[in-house]
Design brief:
binds gamma-amino-butanoic acid; 3-stranded mixed sheet; 372 residues
Length: 372
């Protein structure tokens, strides 16, 4: 066993796949408010996800893990904790946790290092515990593995803009997009905050989305932490930015898939183009009209795909038009039924963490451009 992964496309040898067990609709907290009035969880209510949904999600996660194993990819799984308990630090208390389906939000592998992100939801503060058995095992098996954790945040009220959600809901879309571009959202700059899933790895370049869960200090912390990388803060025209892996998705050297409705900063597109990358706009998601209940993700989970190597990609089985598009770009598509997993926090990319991909650190962007 070893830890090594520098990008999102090198041949996959070992991966972590999440579990749906015990996932909760979270209690309201400053960073996030769930409001599913038609699905039995109006604002202010919380509790376990329905048992039949959890079972269906676990069936798809297990089948996905089995398929990967059959392809010769080693699969590790997290150890869920009791997410229905009250969690507390000296600074706060919250009546529920969340779950451990989307380990990608918490962990990122950069080379021989696995880094635990700060997170900014109180309900996810302790989620790292679910991944510790795997990290411990990797640490013992691979003498070169670097096990790092970003500063655990305090998450006092000072880390959040008071009354953000009540106010943001009333802002028209153009105003919300202006706020996203200025990164004037729910997080203050009290302390570094980031989710690992806001980072897209392209070798020496790491693109980090400023979002509802990642602030400027978080990006600055990452820049200082990875001095051999170029760490770029980026934004897209998405009113609810949450994780870059349903927006700007590396496919192979020279090819990035873009959820084109979420327009990229023109300077970012230029940076890719002057370095001979093709930016391809993804087709509309098949799930655009019929989205699962209790899901807090967007239909753009369609592009939340997992490369097995630079020519092979796992895509949700219902996303037939996307599969056709990827075929036309020379990719082999492995269809994976995964729609039942969406309400547990994401798609195929969210549900996984690369532990080992063959390959090394390369510079895919030799030319500088604008602020990049
Ligand atoms: N965690 C991925 C969610 C991405 C999205 O809803 O766009």
């Amino acid at each position: 066993m070893r830890v090594n992964s520098w990008n999102g496309w090198d041949p996959l040898r070992h991966v972590l796949v999440g579990r749906a067990d015990g996932t909760m609709v979270q209690a309201p907290e400053p960073a996030v408010q769930r409001d599913f009035p038609e699905d039995g969880f109006p604002l202010g209510t919380y509790g376990p996800m329905p048992a039949e949904m959890t079972e269906a999600a676990n069936e798809q996660l297990d089948a996905f893990a089995t398929m990967l194993t059959r392809r010769g990819i080693r699969v590790s799984r997290p150890t869920p904790i009791d997410f229905a308990q009250t969690f507390a630090t000296p600074d706060w208390e919250i009546p529920t946790g969340f779950g451990c389906m989307p380990p990608r939000d918490v962990l990122i592998t950069v080379g021989t290092e696995i880094l635990e992100a700060t997170m900014c939801y109180r309900s996810r503060w302790f989620e790292y515990l679910c991944y510790r058995p795997v990290l411990q095992e990797l640490f013992e098996a691979d003498p070169d593995m670097r096990w790092e954790t970003a500063p655990k945040p305090r998450l006092t009220d000072a880390s959040f803009v008071p009354g953000f959600w009540d106010e943001y809901r009333t802002v028209p879309k153009t105003g919300q997009l202006a706020r996203v571009a200025a990164h004037d959202l729910v997080l203050t700059e009290e302390e570094p905050l980031f989710d690992a899933a806001d980072i897209a790895r392209f070798g020496r370049d790491l693109f980090v989305q400023l979002s509802l869960v990642t602030n400027r200090k978080g990006v600055d912390w990452l820049r200082r932490h990875f001095p051999d990388h170029r760490v770029h803060p980026v934004t897209f025209t998405n009113t609810h930015p949450l994780h870059i892996d349903a927006t700007w998705v590396p496919l192979r050297p020279g090819l990035v898939l873009h959820a084109g409705e979420r327009l990229a900063d023109p300077e970012l597109v230029k940076y890719f183009e002057v370095n001979d990358w093709q930016v391809v706009e993804a087709v509309q998601p098949a799930s655009w009209k019929h989205y699962p209940r209790l899901s807090f993700c967007s239909p753009w989970l369609a592009v939340n795909i997992l490369n097995l190597d630079p020519g092979t990609v796992c895509v949700e089985a219902g996303e037939v038009r996307l599969a056709d598009q990827l075929n036309s770009l020379g990719m082999e598509v492995v269809p994976v039924p995964f729609r039942a997993v969406g309400p547990f926090g994401g798609g195929l990319h969210c549900a996984t963490v690369d532990i080992w991909r063959e390959g090394g650190l390369e510079d895919y962007f030799p030319r500088r451009c604008g602020r990049f």
